[in-house]
Amino acid sequence: MHSSVDYSLSKLTAGSYGYALLSIICSPKPKKFWEITFASAERGWIVPALHESHATSSSPGEFASKLTALPILILNVHSRCNCRCVMCDIWKRETNEQIKAEDLERHRLSIHSLGVRHVVLTGGEPLLHSDLTALCNFFREQNIRLTLLTTGLLLLKRADDVSTLFDDVILSVDGPREVHNAIRRVNGAYELIQRGITAVRQQSPHLPIACRTTVQKANHRHLRATVTAAKMLGLDSISFLAADLTSEAFNRPLVWPSERQSEIALNAKEAAALENEIERLIVEHADDIHNRYIVETAAKLRRIPRRFREHLGQASPESPACNAPWVSAVVEVDGSVRPCFFHRTIGNLNSSTLEEVVNGETAQTFRQSLNIATNPTCQRCVCSLNQRPEVGEFP
Ligand SMILES: C[S@@+](CC[C@H](N)C(=O)[O-])C[C@H]1O[C@@H](n2cnc3c(N)ncnc32)[C@H](O)[C@@H]1O
Ligand code: SF4
Ligand code: SF4
After folding, report:
1. Whole-model pTM?
2. Which pLDDT score, from 0 to 100, does residue 251 have?
3. Which of 82, 125, 148 has most ligand 2 atoms within 8 Å of its beta carbon, as the pocket-test mutant?
4. Contact 21, 170 (CB under 8 A)
5. What are the Cα distances from residue 164, in Å, to 31, 141, 147, 155, 296?
């Protein structure tokens, strides 16, 4: 669908960013902003050259002026959710808010002029939205690709909507049956997901449904079992990322105290067990890694236990490759906009248009001053977005 859009997703990945999810191939005519990318050999990250005149510079700040495009928009469309996950505090929210299609109308021009191409609906739980059809149609009529990131508990009830409104689905599965249900603290959650997938598949057999697994204390010994579970559920791919322990994301207005962090974090013995699990995953599922059923490479999988080692002070923090603030924005349910999940807000859609926010003074100053390699938030980041054209795709 949306065939007039001049790009394709190389592979649905429920991977980094949860969100960041995407590896996008431009073809055959890439948009201006990503016609040139800058790769820093020393830092190993890539920044899109927003102004061609800056393409030869090595300072991240020099790329940080006005954005001419924003291909990815992540919308937290509902404040509530339907699980009580141990690693997330979103379920504790007491407000019942949602982003409505009419709220977005005043941003239609910005969405067009910034060339938004892919919208991810998350939350809270997006399937709790009271008018998902209107919300999705707002984007669909603009030929924007739509991804649903969901607990899957309502897939069964909303199979019709899911199969017609979305281009792909990312389902959060935190382990095999017992592990998943324990982490989500919902009896029968896994079984409900299973029935939901079957219902969606009946309606739309080719809709890509990917699995996303957040690695933490409660599932660190079960990664191979989770791959097996994803296959038994009929999911098209699986992606792993480490649980975030230290940011204010996931409804943590105050950073978790260390006792709370240690409920999710791994101790040294558990970190060793995870390293062992990852090595066995790499060996026993070499084919799945090779054919990208498991989205991450072996190197990327090995970074997951490293994150926990860093948390224990046993490894030095290392930022991931990321250009999220230059290619995407995250909109919270109250309209506030972040340059990525983990950095502070740069404005609010209730008082400004999307374009005014992403090209406002706060946003530009943020991007100008952001050095991903040395920024402490980036150094602890568990998921990043590094959107770049595939090698060889460019004329
Ligand atoms: C916040 S949820 C919102 C969508 C939906 N409620 C769900 O669970 O899929 C989006 C993703 O964030 C993940 N997540 C929750 N807490 C996390 C944490 N502390 N660190 C990293 N990812 C986390 C979830 O597992 C889920 O895949
Ligand atoms: S991970 Fe999703 S379902 Fe779980 S508490 Fe957070 S928002 Fe709710
Ligand atoms: S915290 Fe830094 S590395 Fe992580 S997504 Fe944001 S900008 Fe990228």
Report:
1. 0.86
2. 78
3. 125
4. yes
5. 28, 13, 12, 12, 29
